[in-house]
Design goal:
The chain is of the alpha+beta class. It has helices at residues 51-63, 124-128, 139-144, and strands spanning 10-19, 22-30, 35-44, 67-82, 85-98, 119-123, 134-135. 26% of the residues are buried.
C-alpha cells in the first residue's frame, strides 16, 4: 500500500558545479532497472528554508564543502521511478563554485558523507552522448544547449 508520504512532491536544490568540461556528480544505482546513473549533489528543501539555503546546507552535510556564487539557473520537474518506487520532484538547479579551490584539483573526491555514494568529476560530453545517465530529467538537454540558462542578474547570494 502506498502512503501519503510516498505520494508527496519533493522540493530539491541541486548544484551544478563545473570544472572545465566536467561537472560534479554522485553515482547511484537502480537495482530494479540494473542501471548506474549520476546526479548533481544537493538535496531536500526543508519547511521554511529557501532553496539556496538548502543548497548550502546540503553541500556542507554531503561533502563538508562550502559554496560561493550560487545563481539559480532554473527549475526542472522530475517524475520518475527508481528501485521500483515512483517519485516526483520539483528541482531548483543552481550553478555555484566550491569555496575551497583544492576541490577542483582532486581526483579522489571521496563519498557522500551521510550515505556513502561515490563523488566524481565527469565529462559533460559523456552525458550528452548518452554514454552515462544523468538525472534529473531535462538536465542533459540544458547542458547540451551549452548550459545557457538565464540567471537572474546579480545572482541569488552573491555576484557571479
Amino acid at each position: 500500500m502506498t502512503t501519503p508520504e510516498q505520494l508527496a512532491i519533493r522540493p530539491l536544490a541541486l548544484g551544478l558545479i563545473r570544472n572545465s568540461d566536467r561537472i560534479l556528480v554522485f553515482e547511484g544505482h537502480d537495482d530494479v532497472k540494473g542501471e548506474t546513473f549520476y546526479r548533481l549533489l544537493g538535496g531536500g528543501i526543508e519547511f521554511g528554508e529557501q532553496a539556496v539555503e538548502a543548497l548550502h546546507r546540503e553541500f556542507l552535510e554531503e561533502l563538508g564543502a562550502e559554496l560561493t556564487n550560487a545563481v539559480e539557473l532554473g527549475v526542472l520537474e522530475n517524475i520518475f521511478t527508481v528501485n521500483g518506487r515512483a517519485g516526483h520532484e520539483i528541482v531548483y538547479v543552481f550553478e555555484a563554485t566550491l569555496a575551497d579551490p583544492s576541490w577542483y584539483e582532486r581526483e579522489d573526491l571521496g563519498t557522500i558523507l551521510d550515505e556513502g555514494s561515490p563523488v566524481s568529476w565527469l565529462l559533460v560530453s559523456e552525458f550528452v552522448s548518452g554514454e552515462r545517465i544523468l538525472y534529473p530529467s531535462g538536465l542533459v538537454e540544458r547542458l547540451r544547449d551549452g548550459g545557457a540558462w538565464a540567471a537572474p542578474s546579480g545572482g541569488v547570494d552573491g555576484e557571479r
